[in-house]
Specification:
Layout lengths: L17 H17 L1 H6 L12 H11 L3 H13 L10 H10 L5 H19 L4 H5 L1 E2 L8 E2 H27 L2
Antiparallel strand pairs: 1-2
């Protein structure tokens, strides 16, 4: 059963809990797995908007399925005082994610995504409270948020939006 993002924040604090993050990861994995056969049947179905198809979107999700590298990157930037890279809306990174999976089948990309979700569930327990509570300021966000909330948002709003786009494309394609 999926919990809504507003119910995933611990009552005693405004910080997303490890349990909430793990549940969001499991929800994303379950939704992707529920779409598996339909994705395999129509990986080239175009999305309703933009230039991506189901396979491109799946490639992007697989690349981001484990949020721990994002946590490590943001933590390293904060500790070093480095400025975030210029915001291009993620276009260069997205193009790289798709290109890296160009020779993979939809099955292989789905398997990669599932394995990354499992790796993330295991890895979340290894994050210390200080890392999860770290304030983060990203160029695309007006205010700072806690790292735990960034991870939770990534696994809920971002993933759910893309899976919704995939599902709509599959419906349009009759898959």
């Amino acid at each position: 059963m999926q919990a809504s993002p507003d119910k995933l924040i611990g009552e005693e604090s405004s910080m997303a809990t490890r349990e909430a993050i793990v549940q969001a990861i499991r929800n994303a994995d379950a939704r992707g797995e529920a779409l598996r056969e339909r994705i395999i049947a129509a990986p080239e179905a175009p999305l309703a908007e933009g230039d991506w198809n189901v396979r491109d979107t799946l490639s992007h999700l697989a690349a981001r399925a484990n949020p721990l590298p994002l946590v490590e990157m943001v933590t390293a930037m904060a500790e070093s005082g480095a400025e975030p890279p210029p915001d291009d809306g993620g276009e260069a990174m997205n193009a790289q994610q798709i290109a890296e999976r160009a020779g993979m089948s939809a099955v292989e990309i789905l398997d990669e995504m599932h394995a990354a979700y499992e790796e993330a569930v295991t890895g979340i327990d290894g994050l210390d409270d200080e890392t999860l509570a770290r304030p983060v300021k990203l160029p695309v966000m007006p205010d700072e948020i806690q790292m735990s909330d960034l991870v939770l948002m990534s696994m809920t709003m971002h993933v759910e939006a893309h899976l919704g786009e995939i599902e709509a494309a599959l419906e349009t394609a009759g898959a």
